[in-house]
């Protein structure tokens, strides 16, 4: 897997999403739960907007000094006996990890949830060198069994309901109990416990890496990251280069924002910080530790108008409020990063060619921007993408370009504008019945497949105003 | 107080009543209303589609049209919100920069103007009927006008207000989005229309013509008999 998922066209993906009633119901109810949870937490905190400002300031400061903080992080991880590898590309990251796996002659790898490893397609790369990779986050495990990609960055299997999970377990793992979530979870726990105990290498993602100490911090509710980081002797953490935070103090604030915005909790059940290897005199920690810091297109975003997209703490609050996401689901985005942040980030990391529709998959309602705990102006960045698609990439159809040229003429010429508004009614006449257009021509079709369009008014406002002035009416 | 009406192209063409109501309400609370004839469109259809250069042609015309106005007041959160974006878009344009800022600073959505500038919360209207209000996304999130419309509606004598479930969710209009992403937009407006029906209201009220055309068009298509009214229509009943 890489950033791009599958080969279906955007239209096909959207259609498939819209027609999948099961998925839509599951997504809508999850969105409802996440949203109300977040709202409760924000209210409880009382000064949510101040927290957001703080979050934004921390992320801005860190990104503006990212070279310094990454160096500090790297030095501190090295001091703690870890190896640090900066990977410019997905290939470089995978090569390095493959190399570690081969060197250890590792048969089994357990993973905790990580978006960046999805982004670089790490699992496939490890399977290539013969390693058995097991996802240990419950949602990810279900998807792995089902060979289905994640559709949400926090709740990867949000598009599935418990009946579907039961089916998967039955088919793939011989499960024979009910579809009760407790029974399903306890079955998964038993199965995964075996995997943890027999794993040679543990691989984790990274929510935040603390520069001052070299601690990679993982935020989970299942405790699986803790298992993956305590049992195997060799551990690898993979992080996007923007995951760095200066000190524990900033970590505190960002974790507080993350757990509240993501799942509506004051704190998740587990927050795990791991620093390097077991040093002399210490009782725990791995023998061998590697931190892989992935660029994969991120440094190109630095210094551009999209820099703040790197502020993202992957909380999915923008996804949970997005009405487009609700109706099409995560897979329709055709990217490992769905929803508003996915629509912003995917073209930046993977180019416009395969993802040029994503910036338009938004009504620009701004719910995402309002929800984002680190104040990324998501909907504005979608407009910037559109500008680039139009003005630099020149990817829009000729008919649309001509129409917009026409718009510019119309909007800049009061005479033309006035004439067109006066004539609109008669121009629409052939399609009008009972003051309604039910089956419009040209682009209007897109409108009238779903709803009626009104006939232009009998009298435009400006002619009314003029008559009124003439009549001296007050 | 002298006020220039910014009619917005949608109201100019599709709902001249909104313009009339706006003028009459403003006059009733003591404003002198003029209508700069050379105004056109705020530029949003092109801007939101990524055609910034084309959009700016229209935006410049708007700046010219309202150059001599003290206040610019319009019956749309979305279009006024667009005017408020001008300073950012003309930041590096030495010719238009100052004008963009002046226009943004003196522009108001009509309910915002009544409540926040004039301090009027009761425009003396009476209206019989069950109303539900859809707070449009651009009014609340882009322009930041969250309370003014409800404040005014609460003071309408006889109006029975009922809350719209999931009111903050977008109706799926989004300008060219409704056409370009017709399928998604269609699902969004179906959901909104269903929420409107749930309220049992006779009137769906809003402050943005685009959303009202969208939701109203859907309800009509479904054969539902909810009337759609711009907020000025309710505020001008007396
Ligand atoms: S963009 Fe903001 S809201 Fe969306 S996932 Fe990232 S931090 Fe969360």
Question: Can you give a write-up of this model?
Answer:
The complex is a heterodimer of chains A (474) and B (238). Chain A has 474 residues and is an alpha/beta fold. Among the domains of chain A are: 48-300, NagB/RpiA/CoA transferase-like (Rossmann fold); 417-470, no CATH class. In chain A, 52% of the residues lie in helices and 11% in strands. Chain A has 22 helices and 13 strands. Chain A has a six-stranded parallel β-sheet with strand order 1-10-7-4-2-3, sandwiched between helices. In chain A, strands 8-5-6-9 form a four-stranded mixed β-sheet, sandwiched between helices. Chain A has a three-stranded antiparallel β-sheet with strand order 11-12-13, with no helix packed on it. In chain A, a hairpin with a 2-residue loop joins strand 11 (432-433) and strand 12. In chain A, helix 2 (21-45) crosses helix 12 (248-263) and helix 19 (398-412) packs across helix 20 (414-428). Chain A is elongated, with a radius of gyration of 26 Å. The mean pLDDT of chain A is 94. Chain B is α/β, with parallel strands linked by helices. Chain B has two domains: 2-116, no CATH class; 122-235, Rossmann fold, CATH 3.40.50. Chain B is 51% helix and 16% strand. Chain B has helices at 9-14, 16-28, 44-48, 52-65, 77-89, 97-106, 110-117, 137-142, 148-154, 177-180, 182-199, 209-221, 231-235, and strands at residues 2-5, 32-34, 71-74, 107-109, 126-134, 157-162, 203-206, 227-230. In chain B, strands 2-1-3-4 form a four-stranded parallel β-sheet, with helices on both faces. In chain B, helix 12 (209-221) links the parallel strand 7 (203-206) and strand 8. In chain B, helix 5 packs antiparallel against helix 6 (97-106), helix 7 (110-117) crosses helix 9 and helix 11 crosses helix 12. The longest helix of chain B is centred in the C-terminal third of the chain and has 18 residues, at 182-199. The relative contact order of chain B is 0.15. The mean pLDDT of chain B is 96. Chains A and B meet through helix 1, helix 15, helix 17, helix 18 and helix 19 of A and helix 1, helix 2, helix 3, helix 4 and helix 8 of B. The site of iron/sulfur cluster has 15 residues of chain A, from helix 14.
